[in-house]
Specification:
The chain is mainly alpha-helical and 75 residues long. It contains two helices and no strands. α1 runs antiparallel to α2.
Amino acid sequence: MNGAERWAVAGFLVATVAAVGLTVVYGTGGQPQAEGVLLAIAFGGIGFGFVTWANRLLPQGPFVEARPPLGHPGE
């Protein structure tokens, strides 16, 4: 596992832990400020993981595919 994979996994793990914490806080009666912080951390972890994955782990483009010439359908 290289560095980029570790960063992406770390982001997803942070999101998972925050989501579990949010579930516990909500289930025990809720506290709006704690729920907001945990929700922000969960979404931030997901966003960080996806951005790291997209920028560092997916193949870099641009990709070009040949296409047939354009013309009238009746030709």
